[in-house]
Amino acid sequence: MAPSKPNVVLITCHDLGRYLGCYGADIETPRIDELAATGSLFENHFVTAPQCSPSRGSFMTGRFPHVNGLMGLAHGDWELHDGERILPHYLGDVGYETHLFGLQHITQDTDRLEYDYVHSEGNLYPGVSPAVHQANRARNVADVVSGFLEREAFDDPFFASIGFFELHRVEEENGRFGFDSDHYETDDPDDVRPLTYLPDRRGIRQDLAEMHGMVRAVDDAVGSIVETLEETGLDEETLIVFTTEHGIAFPRAKGSCYDPGIEAALILRCPDIADDGNRYDELLSNVDVLPTILDLVADEDDLETRHEIHGRSFLPLLTGEEYEPRDRVFAEMTWHDMYNPVRAIRTERYKYVRNFWHLPKVYLTKDVFASEAGRMVRESDGVPPRPYEELYDLHESPQEDDNVVFEPKYRDVREDLSRELYEWMDRTDDPLLDGPVVPGDYETITSWSHEATGDAD
């Protein structure tokens, strides 16, 4: 029988995408695979932004970045708007004790999040120094969480938000951003399967081989936490949510609105709700997770809701009740380490991308730019400008390398999706429609005028 008010254990990590064995990646992740086999896995879960803070902000608020205010990195002076409510606030409304373990990346001031308890240091935001973020490494955070769970006796249901530093790249002595191979076991590059959307080059394989060590660290830590839940019997009354905020830190992934940038693992496990190993292929957005959790644990009348939640619950999908699947998801990027305004809409078959700024064909975030993989891609894609519009037929071009935006046979698709994207921006008061979005620490930026497509008012 499903618990009426289960504990909620949320486990997040950096820059993972869907790079797990259970999602078909060429790596062994037995602990997370077991979680999926005894829970539910979502094959088409996408995030609202291919970058850390904005995506996490959407997960925690159920709202798009340009609405909740977190349109750039938390350590880049972006914050949620005052008064934004996040998941621990809602759970606190209905009697949950809220706990933060390890990393969060939606504010520089952890006190703003109003957790009842903060258990480990280094919570502010991810930098690139291994020493600074030692406390947030998966194995260390997992140890703290296990100690907490071994208390066993809890007067109230609890929410545990657990954040790992991995798989964030770190800056090495030579200025290169790698995967901290001094702390993690590196695989043989010759045994690594190349990424389908990048050229098969030795340096990219080496990067992947190093990243595998971080993936295994996350897998071990997740396994340790789940094992403690099982040993204490808490698993019988706990919803486990495992996810990440965007794709892996490689070109055309992190920092891009192509699928490798906005794809994200999502695995749930909860007795009698998500415990049968089902795999779901319905389109989901990460703004849908918050309303799903709230749908499971609370009556709507018990919640203090100040803002519209853009996501919608997919709990009926899990319980076998009537459920109307999404037919599209939206993604965006505005600021990362530079101004990069992009908006995108994805359906089951098509992806339409609108670029609002003149940048190279492949935008690289700072950590990806300074990586070996980034260096190799810069040589070929670092100069040509990207187009104003992009349209991909994902059935014909799953790697999103054949832009058909101006092909006559796709004219109706282009018009429909560009109109729907504009209507979404207009409906949600996207500030980008009024011109360049300037953060507080910039006085002016050069404008590039653009016209809205479609005929929406």
UniProtKB/TrEMBL annotation:
Is Ligase a UniProt keyword of this protein?
Answer: no
Q: State whether keyword GTP-binding applies.
A: no
Entry GO MF terms: arylsulfatase activity
Q: Which residues form the Sulfatase N-terminal domain?
A: 6-297
Instruction: List the keywords (alphabetical).
Output: Hydrolase
InterPro entries in the cross-refs: Alkaline_phosphatase_core_sf, Sulfatase, Sulfatase_N
Hey, which family's this protein in?
Belongs to the sulfatase family.
The name this protein goes by in its record: Arylsulfatase A
To which species is this protein native? Answer: Natronobacterium texcoconense
